[in-house]
Amino acid sequence: MSSDCTRVLAFYAGTGVDDRGRRIDDVLAFDDSALEDVHDYIQWLFPLDVPSGVMPHAPLVDGDCGDAFAADPRLRATLHRAFDRMLTFYGLRLVVGAEGLTVVRAEDFGRHAENWLTRQNHNFLRLTRILRSLHLLGEAPRAGALYACLEALYRERRSTIGERTFAFWTRAASGES
Q1: Dist CA 79 CA 86 (whole Å)
Q2: If 0-12 CB within 10 Å is exposed, 13-18 middle and 19+ buried, where does residue 111 land?
Q3: Is the pLDDT confidence value at 177 over 80?
Q4: What is the Cα 20 distance to its own chain's centre?
């Protein structure tokens, strides 16, 4: 197992810290302003298998990390908490139903969308990361549910989101980097 994977697993287990000394519970307790303004947490909440251009020293995940998440319900539960927190930030929520998982707009979607659903918004990159990371960590159903919601938003706000962003989301949602 790589040292990066070990760091991610410790962070998700609540025994390790990110590069700023924060535990995962500290990050998940950020208010919406902090989630918007702080730019070095998303790489820890939703790690990828390729280096970040913004944080080149952020840990990378590999197949061993994916296997560890698949084997440990506590890690998956923490990943679900991270996903739910980011959905709340975007004014979205996860619905678990008989038909599976669905991401829908929350009652306060409009208020949240004002902060991120704008042209060339950095949150579009974060959403790409979330989609891809969910795949890498064995949560393709959650990635698919988020993608379906984003696809509906794209149909409504094509000029705001843009074809390029939507293409990135589509690749990430299918598990491609």
Answers
A1: 11
A2: exposed
A3: no
A4: 19
